Amino acid sequence: MTDQEIFEHWKDKDAHLLPILQAFHDRDEHISEEAIKSIAEALRIPVAELFATVTFYHHFSRSLPGKNAPRVCTGNVCCLNGGRELLESLKAEEATAMPCAGRCDDMIPVIRGDKVYVGKDAGSLENRATPVPPRNPGKIEECIFRHIRKEGRSQMEGYRGSGGYIALEKVITLSKKELLDIVTDSKLAGRGGAGFPTGLKWKAVHEATGSPKSIICNADEGEPGCFKDRAIMDHDPHALIEGMTLAAYATGASRGFIYLRYEYPETAVILQRAIDESLNAGFLGKNILGKEGFHFDLQIRRGAGAYICGEEGSLLNSLEGKHPFPRNKPPFPVTHGFENLPTVVNNVETLASVANIVRKGARWYQSLGLGEHAGTKVISLSGDIQRPGNYEVPFGFSLQSLLHEWGGGPHEGRSIQAVTMAGLSGGFLAADDLNVTLDEASIRSKGSFLGAGGIIVFDDSRDMVSIAHDAMEFFAHESCGKCFPCRIGTQRLSERLNSNNQQLGLENWQEEIDDIGAVMKATSACGLGMAAPHITESLQRYFPEKIKTHLNHSN
Amino acid sequence: MIALKDKSSGTVVGSVTIDGELVEFHQGETIYQVAERCRREVPTLCYDKRLEAFGACRLCVVEVEGIRNPVASCTTAASEGMIIKTKTKAVDKYRKTLLEMVASENRNLDIDALAGYASQELGTLLDRYKANNGRFEGKQSGESNEDDKNPFILRDYDNCISCYRCVRVCAEQEGDHAINVMNRGFHTQITTEFGNDLRDSQCTFCGQCVQTCPTGALTDKKAIRAKDLPGDISKTRSVCPYCGVGCAVDLLTKNDRVVGIQPAMDGPANEGALCIKGQYAFDFVHHPDRLTKPLIRQPDGNFREAEWEEALEAAAEGFTKVREKYGRHAIYGIASGRAPHEAAYMVQKFIRAGFGTNYIDNCSRS
Fold first, then answer.
1. B190 contacts in chain A (CB < 8 Å)
2. Tell me, what's the pLDDT at A382?
3. Which of A44, B11, B169, B330 is most solvent-facing, going by the fewest CB within 10 Å?
4. Residues of chain B with pLDDT under 50
5. B208 touches A: beta carbon within 8 Å
6. Which listed CATH number (3.10.20.600, 3.40.50.300, 1.20.1540.10, 3.40.640.10) goes with A376-459?
């Protein structure tokens, strides 16, 4: 395709900067200076501004070998499995490191172009499908994974064969209010980690003035140790599409976007096929299921490597082609979202739950939780555990049962030293605090949070200070650089966890860590900077002796 | 209650309590603006009141009752009934820690005031909070670009704190969009497109980035030459002589020599803006070739110095001769584009009433 053909193809479509950049990146395998100038001119963006935006995303190469050079995951989990060694062994092919690529229930992922390979070492790399979530041994009822293991579920026939689009057919006979009530009564809340009640959010968008409204699915699953959205989208893409269409019905939105992380190229293909099938079957597009005036256009937009784009303000800026900094809140996206118009931003898991909730009822969904807790949560379990994978647990379920009964416990002869919560953002839990139940109240009482539901296990053979250092390096790598506490704080914390250059005595070390942590938690502009100090805080709480050794050794 | 003096500039929509005092506020006013109006000392580094609030430095955080974390006052709108505390022990501690962190990423904190209008902001805050104490030592950010080949702007990013004021002033005030950033996080680097020199970018060398820089990372190359000259810097308010806009400037002098120019932030016509000429083209002031007395051409073609009276008489005689010999339409007046309105008026009056011709024009047209 020539430059002009690319511009021509995208010029009338919404949110077109990212796909145009991707088109150049696909065609030339990198984004050259000429490409930046050409795009800047065509879209009337100042060259310096476009240059800034391109350099923000770490998966956009600006020189050859670019897109097809291997990118090797050196996330926390992959480092346990030899990610760094694999990177080293592919250096001849100009391999580069990338942060967690969301494949932690498998071997180390390596991205080459639009294919993801997994393997233990260079010789064993193979391209294979995302693992299907394992069944839980307790035969506990599921919502989101209810049908995901059915053969052919990812395609229209299989989806229809297991109750697919029945919810949508039912809903168009209901009023918007009736649908909003079902979602509200189910007590479904944001499963990306923020936990905002979904019914309330949809209602706010329904009531907001301004159109067109948008439904945006946050599929930028960037949190290390989280890979649930990938499993949902790869094996049950229609559930997400149906959920988004239901959201569109409830709110009156006519535009939809799935903001998919760069690291899931094959998921984009699966989703696009499902969107096309859905469009052909009349579940998407104009006058859906013959209902006059019910239009919903659904598009995929791929990210380009930036954890911060999972933050909704950054995501919206990124979609709009702006520099992906978080937005100042208020105003919130429900009134000022995509193009400053009312917008629902929901996580994949949240949206993909809705069809089953509508089909089986709000009460049913509520009753899946234990005790006073409503509903379920998918936990991505990985690290030093026998059966890693995505498990849908009832809220209130015991962490120990998940680790030992469902996950099979640590490897032979090992014991669990610590686990992370919320991927890395919740920091560590260890010792007696592992006796929590999986719900926000219980986990927050230990100074952590459940978040998106990633739990990484570290056994007693691991060096916790070094694990903490890797975690903080991740946050430093992903800090957008706008607000001072996060930009400088993540860097300074990471330096203080690095074993190679410690000049500080224990007392000064602790004071500095505490002061930086406090200022980050209190004054950072978004969740990244507020969450990162959980790592150092929990390290100090559970492993004071290891910190002493860390400082003694480096001195 | 502190009532608004100037109620015409906006609708009063409510009141907030700032440090125990009830204060009215306007539609759209931020907490920072209200606090500033009430003379509260809220520190900032990324704030420039001419620019859209950005919320990067977080120094302006204040406590608001009912909100768990302190909020950035520059980006938070005041709303009815807010109870705000601009100075508490906790907030002060955050500010000090933030400043210590900023100090730790910069190499040079002793910046000469000739560097630029705002160049002392960081240093002043570091002194006020006693924050330059060597804590949080570590890697330093920014890569210097001192070699940028241009005679006006020194780009020493060793001292950059990535407050984005230069980027924003270039885009929002000047409309040039010449500078932006590359990369992110600690590797954020203020730069031009593709990291080129300024002269290869959209830069017009208006110098506004230099004047808003709070650390001296961007320095006025011409002014800083006088750094080691003896004497104090004095500022004299004047008006830029280059065109009729009337930009207010502060002439920086040392021992009666003009060493630099800074835009007046309160200049009614320019509000801190200048162009390349007003900002940097002042060398003629002390140039040896500068005319300081009228010159009259001698019959041999050489000039000789004269007093004003003699010179004006010679000029009048010349004009009269031309008119008598060739008629009134042989005279053609051209007013300088640098002349203000009043002077241009005088020129046309002089030509029309004095000589009786309409041959009058302006240099920018003829």
1. none
2. 98
3. A44
4. none
5. no
6. 3.10.20.600
